[in-house]
Amino acid sequence: MPHFDLPLDQLRQYAPTVAEPADFDAFWRATLAAAAEHPVLVDVRPEPTHLRLVDTWDVTFAGYGGDPVRAWYTRPAGADGPLPVVVEYVGYGRGRGLPHERLTWPVAGYAHLLMDARGQSGHHAAGDTPDPRAGAPGGPWPVTWGILAPEDYYYRRLITDAVRAVQAARALPGVDPGRVVAAGNSQGGGIALAVAGLVDDLAALITTAPFLCHVQRAIEITDAEPYGEIARYLAADRTAEDAVRRTLSYVDGVTFARRAVAPAHFGVGLRDTVCPPSTVFAAHNQYGAANGRPEPPRRAMHVYPFNGHEGGEAVQVRRQLAWLAGVLAAPGDVAGPATDTTEESA
Fold first, then answer.
1. Is 186 a catalytic residue?
2. What pLDDT sits at residue 335?
3. Of 62, 188, 331, 334, which sits most exposed with the smallest number of CB within 10 A?
């Protein structure tokens, strides 16, 4: 797939006006306040893994509406003292899988909470969290569940779960509650970006090819899933466009990005038809623009000109590790810088 989106020099300046509902902040304040009425931790129990270098717990926490959400909590075995924790969100159609599948962050010395995605088990990786509130009018795919009204939309529930995962992580033993990182790729990257816009004391954000950014453009320029599922739904229900566009405006990553304050690390492939590069740059370029702080947050972007949705893969992870070490370094520690730059990668 050759480049199909804007040229890189235009992408670096791309800062479109994204439709923002007048009650966006009130909507999310009310949603999160309702979730906060439920105690966050429901159950924490050791999980046997036969891995000697990490310890894992099966965690259940209360998400949207108090619904039980599952997660894996993993730490370096025998680690002393509270650790920074990376709260990770999974890609579209994935569940939390098995605890030995994602070990990068605990092996690097961090605590790690991997949140399940309600209702998405069975597409690419197994999960253990149903979505008991599915069933509102909409299409057959997660991205279209309840899409006719923001109050019913699936991503209202998933984003709320994600904020509650941060709260659950802070309540777990062995976690430094002042050093919580939101992380993810694709859908997980979009959810992490939403969390950065809703939680004002995160230590950092790590997001690659984030989904749900500049959604109005995405559904017009790509047919790749998941955006293509929205287009197919609208092709079948020709009267739903106004309602769908209104719903999507409540979950757009650009609007969340504008409110974020944490240092952020982005990545994008210029041949990505799943999450088109212009949608990612729209969030990156406006990150922190409306957070009310006198100085913009630090941010970095790595660009992969010849890659699609896979982006930088292991190379990007190596860069994330180096960048996060710099962000979290205590005064006097030796670590790489957390730069404010757009860096093009070969």
1. yes
2. 42
3. 331
Tokens 């041949």 locate to 271
Reduce the DSSP state of residue 98 to 3 states and report it: coil
Coil vs helix vs strand at 278: helix
Homologous superfamily of domain range 8-134+154-216+252-344: Alpha/Beta hydrolase fold, catalytic domain (3.40.50.1820)
pLDDT of residue 165: 98
The whole-number pLDDT of residue 330 equals 65
The stretches in the chain having pLDDT less than 50 are 332-340, 344-346
92 labeled part of a ligand binding site: yes
Give dist(CA 242, CA 64) in Å, integer. 26
The structure tokens 């998405």 sit at 120
- Among the listed residues 186, 214, 252, 345, the single catalytic one is 186
pTM, 2 dp: 0.95
Among 152, 278, 309, 345, the one annotated catalytic: 309
Tell me how far apart the alpha carbons of residues 337 and 250 are, in angstroms, rounded to a whole number.
34
What pLDDT shows up at residue 124? 63
Alpha helices (runs of H) in 172-273, residue ranges in sequence order:
187-198, 215-221, 227-236, 241-248, 253-259
Kindly report the length of the chain.
346
CA distance 307 to 116: 27
What are the tokens at 294? 């006198």
| Distance, CA of 224 to CA of 245 (rounded, Å) | 18
Q: Distance between CA 189 and CA 249 in Å, rounded? A: 18
- Round to whole Å and give the CA distance between 337 and 320: 12
Of the candidates 55, 272, 278, 302, the residue annotated as catalytic is 272
